[in-house]
Specification:
- By secondary structure, this protein is an all-beta fold.
- Helices cover about 0% and strands about 50% of the residues.
- Strands 2, 4, 5, 6, 9, 10 and 11 form a 7-stranded mixed beta sheet that branches. Strands 1-3-8-7 form a 4-stranded antiparallel beta sheet, with no helix packed on it.
Length: about 120
C-alpha cells in the first residue's frame, strides 16, 4: 500500500500560480496528477516515471510542470498561467507497474485531493 497526501491547493486569480505537493509513504515506479471539475470525469494531466521521464496532456503543456524529490518521496506540480477552467479537485496518483496512461484505472493508489479555484 501507498499513502498519498496532497497539499498546496487554494484560490487564485487568473494568471496566477500555485505549487501542489504530494507526499508518498514510499517510492513507486510512476506518479502523476489528475483533476476533476464539478460534473466532469477525471482528467489525466501529467506523469513522471522512475527514470524521470514525463508526459503532459495538451491542455496543460507549457503551463504546468511536474517534478519529484526522490529523497523525500514527494511529487510536485507547478501550476502557472492559471485559467478559470483549471478550477478542479487535483489528485495525486501512483502505480508500481505502469506509467504514462491517462486512464485512472491504471493507477492503484490515490490521494484525497486538493482543491484549486481560479477566479477571473
Amino acid at each position: 500500500q501507498v499513502q498519498l497526501v496532497e497539499s498546496g491547493g487554494g484560490s487564485v486569480q487568473a494568471g496566477g500560480s500555485l505549487r501542489l505537493s504530494c507526499a508518498a509513504s514510499r517510492s513507486t515506479y510512476c506518479m502523476g496528477w489528475f483533476r476533476q471539475a464539478p460534473g466532469k470525469g477525471r482528467e489525466g494531466l501529467t506523469t513522471i516515471n522512475g527514470a524521470g521521464s514525463t508526459t503532459y496532456t495538451d491542455s496543460v503543456k507549457g503551463r504546468f510542470t511536474i517534478s519529484k524529490d526522490n529523497a523525500k518521496n514527494t511529487l510536485y506540480l507547478q501550476l502557472n498561467s492559471l485559467k478559470p477552467e483549471d478550477t478542479a479537485m487535483y489528485y495525486c496518483a501512483a502505480d508500481d507497474v505502469r506509467c504514462g496512461s491517462w486512464s485512472d484505472s491504471n493507477y492503484d493508489f490515490w490521494g484525497q485531493g486538493t482543491q484549486v479555484t481560479v477566479s477571473s
